[in-house]
Write a structure and sequence with these properties.
By secondary structure, the protein is α/β, with parallel strands linked by helices. Helices cover 18% and strands 48% of the residues. It has three helices and eleven strands; from the N terminus they run E-E-E-E-E-E-E-E-E-E-E-H-H-H. Helix 1 crosses helix 2 and helix 2 runs antiparallel to helix 3.
């Protein structure tokens, strides 16, 4: 429970064994002018669902809910979120980046539920994923349920392979293919954590991502 004007930052690094199942739900209730930040890095498990439910019960709430998943083998991660707003002048940003290879499965489910009193809401949701193998799977379901008529709300989702032009550009300047691919993926993932205030924490998360890329270099 976040009281009026309270601030909370959660940073989660998730990495379960190949045979582990994890179902985790965080429920956050936010009062007037509360600020909530969450950054998640998941390397998956046999079956993983990391759910966040934000219940906005005051005016002027701010939330940033970013995440990234890097999955290999048969690993699975489901990042689910539900944000309910019932008061005006709230600002919500959500960005989730995914990278899957081998036969891994990435899932994103996000919903903004904006009730009629929540006028002047500014909310944006994005999910973007890179598929590094033909057998990998991505499933994405962004949703908006809006009853207010004076809001700026949007969502978007993309999935596909690494940009061949960007890859060619790096290779044409002497960067080996595998290294060029790692650089592009790391830059892609970095967008999800660039808003973390602590540079040391940013660096730690990106170092973990870089280690995953090194272990799974094609």
């Amino acid at each position: 429970d976040l009281a009026e004007g309270a601030n909370l930052t959660r940073i989660i690094v998730h990495n379960d064994p190949d045979n582990a199942t994890r179902i985790s739900t965080a429920s956050i209730t936010a009062a007037k002018a509360a600020k909530f930040e969450q950054y998640v890095l998941s390397f998956g498990g046999a079956l993983s669902r990391l759910e966040t439910r934000l219940d906005g019960q005051g005016e002027g709430i701010e939330a940033h809910m970013n995440g990234a998943y890097l999955l290999s083998g048969d690993k699975h991660t489901d990042m689910t979120s539900h944000t309910k707003l019932t008061h005006p002048n709230c600002n919500i940003r959500q960005s989730v980046k995914g990278v899957v290879t081998d036969k891994a499965r990435g899932v994103f489910q996000g919903k903004f539920h904006v009730r009629r009193p929540a006028q002047h809401t500014d909310a944006e949701m994005r999910h973007d994923a890179l598929m590094l193998s033909e057998r990998a799977q991505i499933r994405s379901k962004p949703e908006l349920e809006i009853y207010a008529d004076d809001v700026a709300c949007s969502h978007g989702s993309t999935s596909g392979a690494i940009d061949d032009d960007a890859l060619f550009y790096l290779q044409s300047r002497g960067v080996p293919h595998a290294i060029a691919q790692d650089l592009l993926v790391l830059s892609f993932i970095a967008e999800a954590v660039q808003e973390i205030e602590s540079e040391a924490l940013q660096e730690e998360i990106l170092t973990r991502a870089e280690g995953w890329l090194t272990r799974h270099r094609g």
